[in-house]
């Protein structure tokens, strides 16, 4: 396993943003950038597609607060809990179908909608001093990556990436890295799609434990491929309650982790106390385990922490 990229640069602790309030919180928390702007939440419930001007204005208000830092803008990702009427291109789907009709699938047959959002992204990149990146969600096939990357580059976008949240894409990741400038793993969705376990069902929580070996192995596999091709990789959907998990991700070679702004200070403090060597050891150990509990216990041991009463605990 190669950790060359990890040792060359410190792990970026970034924040997720879905409103101006969360952007301000990220700024106060001195985030290393914005790892994910959930653009659909900025316009949630919109009956009409916002104009390019309205979009660019909203994105600029966020980007201008992070000069010189990465700001990753995600294209529309509507879902049942974040409805965009102007992308409701199909009749109401049954619960199972709601999983399927998201992200790039909503506008692959509406390229004009994507083009207008890309135009707003480009204005943001040109007018702000942030390092604007553009990211497509719910990508599952190689041809989808090629379609999106070509369309974004034709419109002048310089930093183009895709989200790895569908296991199908993780399994063919080596075939798409030459098409993109970076990838971002969506840990929450990767977990629920791997285990066919909806986040909306409390009884599924055990399946969605981020320490599940199946998910850790998928993340590790993607990180290895990215290291081999020198492709930057970030990860979002990490709630930040376990600094040990962030350390494991860093040990796998992830370059940036996106967290809630409220968790940044604690995770930053924790990461300042663990070495790259310990992170690598924790990653190797956790990936080799057979259950979520074993992986977490092994990682804590590798990081020289105590996971229980009577000793040092992590957050």
From TrEMBL:
SUPFAM superfamilies: Phosphoenolpyruvate/pyruvate domain (SSF51621). Residues 9-274 form the PEP-utilising enzyme C-terminal domain. It holds the Pfam family PEP-utilizers_C. This is PEP-binding protein.
């Amino acid at each position: 396993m190669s950790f060359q990229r990890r040792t060359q640069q410190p792990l970026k602790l970034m924040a997720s943003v879905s409103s101006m309030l969360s952007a301000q919180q990220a700024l106060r928390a001195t985030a290393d950038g914005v790892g994910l702007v959930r653009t659909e939440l900025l316009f949630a419930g919109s009956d009409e597609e916002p104009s390019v001007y309205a979009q660019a204005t909203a994105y600029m208000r966020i980007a201008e607060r992070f000069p010189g830092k990465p700001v990753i803008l995600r294209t529309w990702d509507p879902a049942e809990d974040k409805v965009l009427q102007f992308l409701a291109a199909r009749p109401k789907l049954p619960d199972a179908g709601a999983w399927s009709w998201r992200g790039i699938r909503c506008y692959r047959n509406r390229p004009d909608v994507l083009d207008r959002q890309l135009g707003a992204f480009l204005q943001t990149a040109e007018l702000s001093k942030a390092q604007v990146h553009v990211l497509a969600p719910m990508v599952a096939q190689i041809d989808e990556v090629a379609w999106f990357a070509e369309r974004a580059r034709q419109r002048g976008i310089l930093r183009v990436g895709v989200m790895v949240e569908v296991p199908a894409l993780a399994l063919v990741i080596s075939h798409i890295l030459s098409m993109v400038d970076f990838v971002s793993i969506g840990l929450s969705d990767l977990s629920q799609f791997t285990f066919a376990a909806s986040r909306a069902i409390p009884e599924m929580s055990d399946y969605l434990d981020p320490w599940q070996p199946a998910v850790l192995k998928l993340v590790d596999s993607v990180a290895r491929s990215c290291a081999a091709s020198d492709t930057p990789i970030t990860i979002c959907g990490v709630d930040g309650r376990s600094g040990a998990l962030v350390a494991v991700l860093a040990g796998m070679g992830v370059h940036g982790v996106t967290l809630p702004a409220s968790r940044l200070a604690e995770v930053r403090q924790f990461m300042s106390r663990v070495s790259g060597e310990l992170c690598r050891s924790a990653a190797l150990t956790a990936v080799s385990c057979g259950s979520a509990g074993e992986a977490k216990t092994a990682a804590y041991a590798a990081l020289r922490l105590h996971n229980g009463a009577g000793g040092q605990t992590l957050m």
